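Budget justification note: compute hours in this period were largely spent on complex prediction jobs such as the one shown. Inputs:
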Amino acid sequence: YLSLLFLGWLTSPSAWHNKYPVAHGSRQSPIDIVPHQASRDPNLSQIVLNYDRCTSINISNNGHSVVVEFDDTDDRSVIQGGPLDNPYRLKQFHFHWGEKGCEGSEHTVSGNSYASELHLVHWNAVKYKTFDEAATAPDGLAVLGIFLDTGDDHRWLHTITDALYMVKFKGSITDFKDFNPKCLLPSSLHYWTYLGSLTTPPLHESVIWIVLKDPITVSEKQLGKFRMLLFTGEEEDQRLRMENNFRPPQPLKGRKVRSSN
Ligand SMILES: Cc1ccn(O)c(=O)c1
Ligand SMILES: [Zn+2]
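Corresponding output:
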C-alpha cells in the first residue's frame, strides 16, 4: 500500500520537477487568470476555427486522459487569428477533470475552478515539419482551452461519453470517425491568451494558450462517465480510477495575460 502511495507521489505534479526541471520554468501552465488584471489588447483579432472539413480518427486512453485524434496531414482543420501569426493544425483534443464537481479544470478564474477543462491541441505546421518538433518550439503549439460547468446535459457530449466504455483501460483505442469538435464550443469566442506550456510532462514551454471566457455546460451524469475510465491497464491488478488529472495553477512570473474584446 505504501509502495502505491510512493508511486502516486512520484507521478504527482509536485514531483515532476525531479525528472523535468522545466516544471519550475518561467512560462509554466496552467495559471490562475484574474480578469481585471488582463489587458484588453485592441490589436487582438477574433480567433477563427475552420473545423468543417475536420477528420477525427480514433479515441484512446493514454493513461493520463481520453484523447480524440485527428488527421493532421494537411490544413483541413485549423485555428487562426487572435495571437497566432499563422494557421495551426488540429491534432487532438482531450479533457482534464476532478473527482467531484467543484474542481477539475487546470486554469482557474480568480481562484475558482470549473468541473473540467477541454483542450484542443494545434501545431504550427507552417514553421515546423512535425508535431514533435513543434512541441519543443516556443511558438510551436496553440491550445484552445474550454471550461466545462455542471448543469443540464450537453446536447452533443453523449457522442463522446457513449464511447468511453470502449477505452476504459490505459492503452485502449477504438475508431472514432466524423466527430466535429465545433459542437463543443460555447456561444462566444471571447478569450484570454498568454504564453505557457504543456500541463503534463515533458511540460515543454511551447504553448500559446487561448482560453475561452465562457464555459460550456455538461451534466454531472455525463461528467461521471469520465470518472469510470482507469489510469491503469487491463493487465494491472491495481485499478486506479482516472480522476483529478489536472495540474494546479503555476506561478505567473511576470507574464501578461491579454484579453480579446
Ligand atoms: C500536447 C498536450 C499534452 C497534454 N496536455 O494536457 C495538453 O494540454 C497538451
Ligand atoms: Zn491538456
